Amino acid sequence: MRVALFVTCVNDTLYPDTGKAVVTLLERLGVTVDFPAAQTCCGQPQFNTGYRHETEPLVRRYAKAFEGYDYIVTPSGSCAAMVRDNYPRIGERARAEGRGEGLAAVAASVVPRTYELTEFLTDVLKVTDVGAYFPYPVTYHPTCHGLRMLGLGRRPQELLSHVKGLELVELPGAEECCGFGGTFAVKNAAVSAAMGADKARNITSTGARAVCTVDNSCLMHIGGTLARLGSEVRPVHLAEILASTEEQPYGGIR
Amino acid sequence: MSGTYLGMPAFPVAAGEAVRDTTLRGNLRHATHTIRDKRARAVAELDDWQQLRAAGKQIKDDVLRHLDHYLVRLEEAVTTAGGTVHWAADADEANRIVTDLVRATGETEVVKVKSMATQEIGLNDALAEAGITAYETDLAELIVQLGDDLPSHILVPAIHRNRSEIRDIFTDAMGRWGRPAPEGLSDSPAELAEAARLHLREKFLRAKVGISGANFMIAETGTLVVVESEGNGRMCLTLPETLISVVGIEKVLPSWQDLEVFLQLLPRSSTAERMNPYTSTWTGTTDEDGPRTFHLVLVDNGRTDTLADEVGRQALRCIRCSACLNVCPVYERAGGHAYGSAYPGPIGAILTPQLRGTDTALDASLPYASSLCGACYEVCPVAIDIPEVLVHLRERVVQGGEVTRAGNRVTLRPAKGHAAERAAMRAARWALDHPAALRAGQRLASRTRRFHPRRLPGPGKAWTDTRDVPAVPAESFRDWWQRTRGTGAAATGSGTGTGTGTGIESREGTK
User: What segment(s) does the record annotate as region Disordered (chain B) (predicted)?
Assistant: First the structure.
């Protein structure tokens, strides 16, 4: 089984710990992980802002970088959804514009092999108890693309519920968007900030020490809002919780 | 559309003001959350909801594919049943037809059933210019009209008003339009409803002309259908001598059997009711019963142009239930007026830029009025993939391209104001297509990380006004991988240990 990590551009540049946590976690579960260095970005920022043509080279790059791997695992619900939902569309549109079958074939080749981390753990490895230890109350925010585009369901909560020491606290209004939305966060900053403030209030009301998601981009917005409001609640990617053990505990909460 | 919406600012400006209005925020939050929860319960009662939803989508897609056929069939059936059908290519033509029809009766007053199509074309203003007063009889539309306001919701046009605001509007304005509000009116719902009932009754009994829209039109029999809660519609549809119905061409359904699907989808999605209280159907005219004259004005107003677009045409499946508004986190905070048209919320953000085009700053900003969270698509009873259409329209805004306008294929130029963004996107794409450039950028950011300001200038300010920026880590993931696992690096074997402990400081730095 050849497994590649698609770390995503956001994690690569801003949250390398999340990438390291995925490697740690998967290796602990006996999976050998590769990081093809030709990978960069899935193209979601371009695509969702209306620059479909700028996305096309990145679709090709993604397919080329991960050629030959059985599984492409990514710690981002949003980027996995970009590949699964939008790559076929990009291929279809290119075909409709009379630019041949190439891009559609490229898209079709990567869609079935791309897995968000919790899907890979529960559906492929078929584990829910990954031997993790995280002795704090945690609240989980289901990010929109993971929840609605990928249909992750209760996979993340299932994984969290098996983490030793972790108390999963329910988040009020959990399924409401945090207000990140990519370029929405700056194009409609007032509404985005209002959504973020409401999300932060709900998070703080749980008394949890950490808020967890499967997407660091949403967590960047949530965490940035919490920090600005002076909250002590820590934003933590799910992978970092699952990677944490009694021997190598997560060091971000004191 | 209505001239009253002309000259409104782009969505982010209007929404930014609405966000600061705490009364409005409170009203909208309370109302949308209540109805959203009720809808979820009403939908959960049906085991076959997803099949119903698929059927609704399929029927509408079939109608849109053969719209020419069904419309001609409808016209024949309506005519046979004693009605007269008029075709209006745009809002002006529709307004002219209706104005002429009212003038021909010699009347200067009409009563109206709540109708989105007449809001869309700005009929009340057009009638007023011709000296004809249109009385809205739906409770919420009445509140909006008396308050000299604009609707902010498809189903609940006065959703932005609370009870005490409504009491003040009634007390202040009812006397100018007809029967004044009772002395000492309180803000209890029962008293407010009674005041409206008394005020409206004299309009119903006096009116000789009624104007309505329709939720559905049955092609096979020429029957129109209005679905409502208050009974004012039934009054307007039966008491006047002349009935004029103004309906968008996409509202046609092939047969009565198709109605069965929509009479389940619509009430549960919009008011969270199993069945709405009043469903009125009428077929042409009937001797000795109801209006003696019936006119149907079929309105295009950009619909055929929308139909020409393969991705965007799904917006024409919309049955105006407003479930997407009630669940939308952006609508909840921005309010309906920020969308600058009769169609607010997610559906408005995809419908208005198609019906009106993307020429104004407001219309070009609408496709961006969404975080693409997808809640709208999830609740849509006819499965309109609103996020897909939003992204498609964003492409139209920034890249331009071929569209249909008034039946002609035209090439749109990219909208103004996106030049810097376009350049940035191209540059980003170039860097992302050259991993070495990406790595160089990451390393530069890492080396300079101690100098990164907490408050950014330019477009970054929009972020840092309310949010801290994440601190750039000392080392990117790819550099860590290269150093620890790459060719020439000392193999770490298990690879554990390097991960969770080290970079924690990076996020700590955001505090």
Answer: 486-511
> Which residue in the set B373, B397, B467 is minimally distant from A50, CB to CB?
B397
Backbone angles phi, psi at A9, to 5 degrees: -65, -35
Within 8 A of A21 by CB-CB distance, chain B residues are 499-500
CA atoms within 13 A on the CB side of B65: 6
- Residue B174's CB is within 10 A of a number of other CB atoms, namely 20
Q: Position of tokens 């499946």?
A: B317
d(CA B149, CA B157): 10
| ipTM surpasses 0.95 | yes
- Residue B334 dihedral angles phi and psi, to the nearest 5°: -90, -25
Residue pointed to by tokens 């009563």: B111
| Number of residues that this document lists for chain B | 511
**β-bridge partners, B216:** B225
Q: Which tokens in the block code for residue B409? A: 């294929």
- Coil/strand/helix, residue A34: strand
**pTM (predicted TM-score):** 0.94
Structural domains of chain B, with CATH: 3-303 (3.40.50.10420), 419-494 (no CATH)
Contacts of A185 in chain B (CB under 8 A): 462-463
Q: Which tokens in the block code for residue A202?
A: 């709900």
DSSP per-residue letters across B278-293: EEEEEES-BTTBS-SE
Specify whether domain A137-243 bears CATH 3.40.50.
yes
- CB spacing of A12 vs B478 below 8 angstroms: yes
Interface of A with B in 133-192 (CB under 8 A): 144-145, 148-149, 175-177, 179-192
Q: Token pair 């700028």 is at which residue?
A: A54
For the record, the structure tokens of B369 come out as: 């009025």
What's the pLDDT tens digit per position in B84-140?
999 999 999 999 999 999 999 999 999 999 999 999 999 999 999 999 999 999 999
**pLDDT tens-digit readout, A191-232:** 999 999 999 999 999 999 999 999 999 999 999 999 999 999
Provide the b/e sequence for A210-220 (b: ≥16 CB within 10 Å): bbbbbbbbbbb
Tokens of B252: 């046609």
Q: Nearest CA of chain A to the CA of B331: how many Å?
A: 9
Residue A251's beta-bridge partner residues? none
The token pair at B449 is: 């990380």
Give backbone dihedrals phi and psi of A186, rounded to 5 degrees, phi first: -105, -30
Residue B385 corresponds to which tokens in the numbers above?
A: 């993939």
Q: What kind and span of H or E run contains A212?
A: strand A210-213
Q: What are phi and psi of A115, to 5 degrees?
A: -130, 135
Ranges of each domain in chain A = 3-124, 137-243
Q: Which two tokens stand for residue A216?
A: 């660091």
CA B98 to chain centre: 25
Q: Which helix (H) or strand (E) holds B400?
A: none
Confidence (pLDDT) at A115: 98
C-alpha of A151 from chain center: 13
Of the candidates A232, A77, A74, A231, the one whose C-alpha atom is nearest the C-alpha of residue A142 is A77
- Crossing angle of helices A189-205 and A216-228, in 10° steps, is 80
**Does the CB of B411 have a partner CB in chain A at under 8 Å?**
no
Both tokens of B155, joined, read 């189903």
Q: Rounded to the nearest 5°, which phi and psi values hold at A175? A: -85, 5
Strand A210-213 versus strand B401-405 pairing type:
unpaired
Nearest CA in chain A to B495: A24
B421 — pLDDT class (breaks 50, 70, 90):
confident
Q: Which residues, in sequence order, are CB contacts of A119 under 8 Å at separation 6+?
A: A80, A150, A152, A155
